[in-house]
Amino acid sequence: MDEQLAIIRRIFRAALDKKGSAARLAHHLGVSFPQLGSYLRGEAMPSDLVLLRAVDLILDDLPRIRAEFSSEVWTSLALPR
Hints:
There is one protein chain. The protein has a single domain, classed as 434 Repressor (Amino-terminal Domain). It has helices spanning 2-19, 22-29, 33-40, 48-57, 62-66, 71-77. It is mainly alpha-helical.
């Protein structure tokens, strides 16, 4: 689970970079600021919908991020391969 949360943290930080601010990212994802903070810190798993919205923002970066983690962890998150 630690590695899954590390992926979540990495995805949400990349999405934050794309949106430029936590407020804009939270609005785009449809989550509260505290919820977003828990994802950015890798403390919680987002819903599938929220995760897919974040992944959609960073599709160009996804191959690079995927390379940072094992394929088993990606499979356990059921993210695009």
